Amino acid sequence: MSIFPKIALKPEVTEYLKSVFLNNEVLAAVGHQEAESRFQNLLACLSHPPSHTCVRASTHLSSLEDIQHKLGEELRKQQMCSSSTVSQQILPHPQIPDVLLLPVDGPRPVKQLSSGVVVGAQCGSAVLRGAHVFAPGIVASPKYMKAGDVVSVFSDLEGKCTRGATSFQGKKVFVGNGVAEIDRSNIFCTDKPVKGVGVRMLEPLYQSPSFDGVLPSLVFLQNLPSVVVGHVLGPRPGERILDMCAAPGGKTCHIAALMRDQGEVVALDRIKNKIDQIHQNAQMFDLHSIKAFCFNSTQAVSGDPAQKSEGPPFPPESFDRVLLDAPCSGLGQRPSMANTCSRKEICSYQPLQRKLFHAAVKLLKKGGVLVYSTCTVTLAENEEQVAWALDTFPCLTLQPQEPHIGAEGMLGAGLSPEQLRLLQRFSPELSWERTDMTAPLPCRANMDTIGFFIAKFLKN
């Protein structure tokens, strides 16, 4: 159900995406009307959250049933402390053994109040996924707002609200009501960094539980396709595995857990504080097989094959499996009400992805597995990269994926039907406005996801 405007994009980006989704191969296969419908559905669904929350369970520490039971108890405690009367289901995913699904209740009939705060678009998106409003996300508030005031929360779609304003007449959308936890003066009239919850949501437009501090070592909020990536990679105990663009470490920790913490998972990222976050996550999940380094993965191949150092760069053919979860334009993320990137920025990722691909293939052992993934919807970063990789590296062949719960690859990159069937593209636009919300949650969960892409290669 569409209650928000379609995602706000620069006109040049909208035209670019339209040319992708209405390319000649797609038009020949489904016709102009269906292709146009899919494109419009994409723009609509991106601004809305999926109909479920996906939680990855630490099944290397406890059984799924035990974690499901403990999570239920924690959420019941949370519910007793709030005004929510929604009964919270927790269901195991029928095909993925370490995933729990929780339905999102929304959109709900929440009445706007006369007094409101404005938050940034990123903060507004987090609220739609169950978060409270943290104080740094507040851009504007009523002039005399005090802790305890009940206020409506609006998301600034275009990032045009002036910080510290008392009102805003630009493009904004209502995301729910909450109670202020902090005075206005402590947000805008202080030299100290603002921390903590600024507005505790009481009546969010989309009701889903807050996981802040809930079973931190046993559950991890992760989009369903991101969990699927770890299973597609298929890590085995005793292997040496490389996660090339690892921060914040969710997939890294999942790989180590799937290996039962036996072997070595090397995680690389260019930003130092993100490496610290990977270390913290590994410690929280009691995983000891992870070694994280601050390093540019495009330079991770050593020119000295005899090099034996623990960290990067590494000799060629050092790893049994490589995950390249590549930096991308992120156009599959949901909910996302606005994206201010230019077409040039959207199209800037392909060269970097190819540099990373070159390094990945060199670092992979013969007979090893390379998984390439993105959270975007463009052909240039997905199917076109697969076509380029198959042409550039004759040693690579596409492999079947398990589990394969998304759609097949998208037409438009010149790949054969057989090759497209081996790819996995999560395409929420294919089911948007057609999903039966009365259908069982596990049936909906595989379709109503973020936009995501996965390709699996074997190095012959």
UniProtKB/TrEMBL annotation:
Protein species of origin: Betta splendens (Siamese fighting fish)
Sequence ranges assigned to domain SAM-dependent MTase RsmB/NOP-type in this UniProt record: 144-460
One annotated GO biological process: RNA methylation
Family designation: Belongs to the class I-like SAM-binding methyltransferase superfamily. RsmB/NOP family.
Residues the entry annotates as binding S-adenosyl-L-methionine: C245, A246, A247, P248, G249, G250, K251, D269, D325
Keywords: Methyltransferase, RNA-binding, S-adenosyl-L-methionine, Transferase
A Pfam short name: Methyltr_RsmB-F
CDD domains the UniProt entry points to: AdoMet_MTases, PUA_NSun6-like
Name by which UniProt lists this protein: tRNA (Cytosine(72)-C(5))-methyltransferase NSUN6 isoform X1
GO molecular-function terms, A-Z: RNA binding; RNA methyltransferase activity
Annotated catalytic residues: C375
Top-level taxonomic group: Eukaryota
